[in-house]
Each structure stands twice: as structure tokens, then as C-alpha cells.
């Protein structure tokens, strides 16, 4: 299979590593920046292009991996759909209407469009879902969740002013709300946004909201209180606590584990998550991204969208939830 990676920044080069880990030998890359093209060609031994149309016509890829900044995802996904070329698309935060329109455009076809849902492949969320499906804590009542990382620590090698996280529409805090809802909705269902308070608390040099406090109601009258922020330092934050009628589940990045206790077994039962393989300069392990890419490639090989656990319509729903939360906040 021939894969063309669109965008050769942090995520694009991670996706090249994913593909190479899966023994995909024919990989090319496109980026408008010469420094990124040169670096990717030197490090990964791939063919690179400075013109996107030339890349399509000359390389003739079997699939695209779109790893640009979010505002450009649909710029490449729509022409790919017109060419009947499958796409993997990084997490979105803008263009909800165009995403919905593209969903309708390909609905009923065998064309695979796979919006990223990496957190669904992380061992922590997978274990939480498994424990809930096994009814280990009874009926879910309430969920508290906080996640965040100091924005300048995302890409220590570049200024935040130089990439999309410093822009209001694609800002770091705003982007992470749908990123987290993608896996939370997979576990708890489709939410009704109830409340949102957001704003700028830090002195990060960007015109963005650096904290979102959100309250959502899920099916079964489950209330979820979620805080997304980009101010946690020196360590990133990820803490989930699920309260049930018969016990509770905790997913803690600090402890690197999922644990639960119930009225029948009050002593905590702990599941250590392991560290995985972390590339130099990155924080998150490679393995969940590799598994996600394997899932996409399998869906492409079999022309079966259902083999990938996220869809354009799912993506649209989380972006609509973000819009509703921001409307409630008065934005």
C-alpha cells in the first residue's frame, strides 16, 4: 500500500513512524515547508513533495494521512474523496459543517474516512470501558475528569506563536475538548451540554481560552464534570473518577494505573498501565498511535468503514457539542 502523509510536523512524522512500524515500505510526504521536507526525507528515507497536486499525480497514493493543522484538514479530505482515496484525518476542532457534508457525500459508499480517536486505543480508557461494561461498580452516577498540560510544553522545540495552538479557533484548550469527548462519548454515550465556563487564566502568549470547565449530562442521567486546561506544569494532568451505585473507578496518569473498589470488594484493585515506547522529544507513547494506524489500514484494505471505531459523523457530533458548550458560556 502506498501512503501519502500530508503535513510533516510533529504528528505527520509520528504517523510516518507508525506506518514504518507496521512495515509499510512505500511512504511519501508533502509539506509546504522546506525544512520539514528535508528533515523527514533525511530521517525516514521517504520521498517528499513541495506541491500537493504533484504528490497526487506523481505518487498516486492508495491512502492519505492528513496531519496538517486542523483548519486545513478538509482542504485535503474533500479532494481525496473526489478521487475516491481513503483518508486518515487527525483530530478536528473546526469545520463541523464541512465534516458533516463530507459524511453525507461518502455515506453508502465503501470509501474509508477515519477521523483520529487515539485515546480509544490508550490502555487507560480501554480498561475503564472494560470495567464499566463488566458492571464492576453498578450503575454510573457521576464522573469527574481533569486533563491538561502546559501549552509551551507541547512542542518545546518551537514557539507556540508559530503554530495553530496559539490561534483562537484552533487553540490548545479548545482543541482538547472534542479530543477528550471522542473517547468519553464512546464510553458514556451522546451528551447533553449543560454548562460551560471558559477563559484565560495564565500569561501564556496567545489569544486563547486556556481553561474550559464543562458539565454534560449523559444517558441514564449521568453527570460528567470535565476540566480541560493547558496550564498544568511541570507535569501533565489526567485524572478520571467514576462514581457508581456500588463503587468507583479511578484512572490516574500520576499513578499510571486504573483502579477500582466496590461495596463487595472495598480494597482497591489496581491495573498498572505501563509506559510504552516514548520517542525523544515526545511525551505520549507510540503504541496507541500504531494500533490506531493499523486499524485504519485494515479498514482501507477491506474497504470497510465499520472496522475503524470513529466516523465523520461522530466527529461532527463532538464538534457540535463543543459549539453548544461555547454558546452556553456566552462566547
UniProtKB/TrEMBL annotation:
Designated name of the protein: Gfo/Idh/MocA family oxidoreductase
An example Gene Ontology molecular-function term: nucleotide binding
Domain Gfo/Idh/MocA-like oxidoreductase N-terminal: start-end pairs: 1-90
Ranges of residues in domain GFO/IDH/MocA-like oxidoreductase: 127-249
UniProt organism field: Leptonema illini
Pfam families, per the entry: GFO_IDH_MocA, GFO_IDH_MocA_C3
